């Protein structure tokens, strides 16, 4: 029955996020908001948590009462891990005392490759400012 599935599903949501997710979905049902979406960690069959992008569509009866929610879950773990990796690299590049310069691979004109990015350490050392 629906209650059993709901309990099974909510028990798979990461303990740090289950209250937020359940409050979010219950608020949508209470307000009769047709479309619902959230991201959270969900325990997969292998026992590991995956980042999930979940969206639902609320079904209302003739009296405007919520009767069901139809949804789809998408595993976005890889994207989340890549975002985390990029933020980590950005933090290292921004905060390092070493100079960092990124240029295009092909020379654009006779002056050489176009500079795409320099960090603050590069600017302090060379005096070059992006512009």
Summarize the structure in words.
By secondary structure, the protein is α+β, with helices and mostly antiparallel strands. It contains 4 helices and 5 strands; from the N terminus they run ααβββαββα. Strands 1-2-3 form a 3-stranded antiparallel sheet, sandwiched between helices. The chain has a two-stranded antiparallel sheet with strand order 4-5. Strand 2 and strand 3 (66-75) form a beta hairpin. The longest helix is centred in the middle third of the chain and has 19 residues, at 77-95. The mean pLDDT is 89.
Features:
single chain, 131 residues, alpha+beta, three-stranded antiparallel sheet, two-stranded antiparallel sheet, 29% strand, elongated
Q: What's this model, at a glance?
A:
The protein has helices at residues 2-12, 18-30, 77-95, 120-126; strands at residues 35-43, 49-60, 66-75, 101-103, 115-118. The chain is an alpha+beta fold and 131 residues long. The chain is elongated.
Shape: elongated
Round the mean pLDDT to the nearest integer and report it.
89
Could you tell me how far the N terminus lies from the C terminus, measured between alpha carbons in angstroms? Answer: 63 Å
Continuous helix count: 4
Biggest sheet character: 3 strands, antiparallel
State the low-pLDDT regions, or none: none
- Percent of residues in beta strands: 25-35%
Rg over C-alpha atoms, rounded to the nearest angstrom: 24 Å
Spatial order of the strands in the main sheet?
Answer: 1-2-3
Helix/strand structural class: alpha+beta
| Share of residues in helices | 25-40%
Number of strands: 5
Order of helices and strands: HHEEEHEEH
């Amino acid at each position: 029955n629906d209650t059993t599935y709901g309990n099974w599903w909510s028990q798979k949501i990461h303990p740090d996020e289950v209250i937020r997710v359940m409050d979010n979905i219950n608020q949508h049902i209470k307000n009769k908001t047709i479309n619902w979406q959230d991201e959270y960690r969900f325990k997969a069959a292998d026992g590991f948590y995956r980042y999930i992008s979940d969206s639902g569509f609320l079904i209302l009866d003739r009296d405007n009462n919520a009767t069901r929610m139809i949804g789809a879950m998408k595993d976005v773990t890889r994207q989340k891990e890549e975002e985390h990796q990029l933020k980590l690299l950005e933090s290292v590049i921004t905060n390092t005392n070493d100079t960092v310069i990124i240029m295009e691979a092909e020379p654009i004109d006779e002056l050489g490759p176009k500079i795409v990015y320099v960090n603050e350490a590069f600017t302090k050392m060379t005096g070059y400012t992006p512009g």
